[in-house]
Amino acid sequence: MGKLTTKFIEKARPGRHGDGDGLNLLVKPSGAKSWLLRVQVDGRRRDIGLGGVELRPQSDRTRIGDDIPLEQRSRLTLAEARELSARLRNVAKAGRDPSAERRRDRRPPPSFKQAAIEAHTSLAGGWSDRTADAFLASLEDHAFPALGSKRVDLIEADDIATALKAIWSTKPSIARKVRQRIGKVLDYSKAKGWRESEAPRASVTTLIGKAKQGGNFAAMPHAEVPDYFKKLGSETETAGRLALMLVIATAARSGEVRSARWGHIDFEKKEWSRPAELMKSGKGHVVTLNDAALDVLRRAAASSSPDNPDALVFANRKGLPMSDMTVSKVMRDANLAYVPHGFRSSFRDWAAEKMPQIPDAVAEAALAHTVPDAVVRAYKRTNFLDMRRKLLDAWGAYITSKGGVVVQLDLLRA
Q1: Looking at the domain that runs over 222-404, which CATH code has it been given?
Q2: Which of 25, 54, 115, 216 could staple 152 via S-S, CB 3.0–4.6 A?
């Protein structure tokens, strides 16, 4: 039983007044009153301040802040001070630091979505812009619907398997990335103390097995591309359709198109300069823009901010890069068996079949594939770019021509 009473505390004079079990009331000459706990930690005596004195009746439970844990309150009643001191003495007896226990965050663990956003904010500084943009976009499309509102400490292997089930067989490449990113969020949550364990990787594999290795992307035969390109251009204009049209016209990767900013586009030079951080190879690359691509960009400018070099050419409603699903959905809604990435193969097949006079290295360079420096030197750098321009100009003329008539150009002329 403690020695102090509420009446004594109200009239206590300056000094230290013991309640027992290490709990003390401190009264300063100014009259300010606070609680102090004296406790043994690892054989050493420690004094720990518990907060100011609250004299309100214990039965009064209507005040705002009563739902705050005792460890986080700035003022305590006598009963609350006794309860907290008992807790901290038990912490010390267990060999832990009572001061650290007081500082421990006792807020409920966040939802998976909240944890993902915080993990992204904390970790993105070490990622490329492309990786940082893709991290949240892929989770928003494939993880948040199933896991977003679930508390991060309650997520188990079965929850992750359920979230991945829809894409595990149909989109194995994306599924592997989403699984990896879910794991990164859960590992981050473990480090923050929001959950007791890291991501249950082995258990997830047991539930869903290994993802299929990605095969070749389903590509539209190049003979069908002109009619499809024309059909896209005649339908209701959306950012997704325009992005897909730019993918086709430039034979670029969908991610490169979705990450394109107006500062990368030079209408006068008819060039799209992609910085290294956007490229799969990690090297900067210039795409020559044919008339078909320039027309798509002018149409996109009408609903974007082309005067702002940092503005995305194709942004979602939040001003972030649109997801890969937005572009893929255009083809899915048309019940097509092909995927946007397949148009790179369409272009490559067309170049091989209809432009045999073009060296393979030129077509590979147009796709931003790695070309040995010796080959580049053989054609000279300026001529190499010039030949790529003529090849992509021919492709642009082909996809906008009626019936896909091949445009013959003397592509090897200096």
Answers
A1: 1.10.443.10
A2: 115
pLDDT in tens, 135-156: 888 899 899 999 999 999 999 9
CA-angle at 283, arms to 368 and 413, nearest 5°: 45
Tell the residue number behind the tokens 């009331």, with chain if given.
Answer: 25
Would strands 44-53 and 75-76 be described as parallel, antiparallel, or unpaired?
A: parallel
Beta carbons of 199 and 119 less than 8 angstroms apart: no
Q: What is the pLDDT of residues 151-199, one digit of tens each?
A: 999 999 999 999 998 888 877 878 888 999 999 999 999 888 888 888 9
Phi, psi of 351 (to 5 degrees): -60, -40
| 112-208 maps to CATH 1.10.150.130 | yes
Nearest to 163 by CA among 146, 182, 187, 181: 146
What percent of the chain is predicted at pLDDT more than 70? Answer: 86
- The pLDDT of residue 103: 63
CA distance 366 to 250: 9
Q: What is the rounded CA–CA span in Å between residue 359 and residue 63?
A: 80
User: Is residue 33 a contact partner of residue 12, using CB atoms and an 8 Å limit?
Assistant: yes
Domain ranges in the chain are: 6-103, 112-208, 222-404
Return d(Cα 33, Cα 52) in angstroms, integer: 6
Nearest CA among 289, 296, 326, 290 for reference residue 313: 296
The tokens describing 73, both together, are: 């309150």
Has domain 6-103 been given CATH number 3.10.560.10?
A: no
Q: Which amino acid is at 325?
A: M
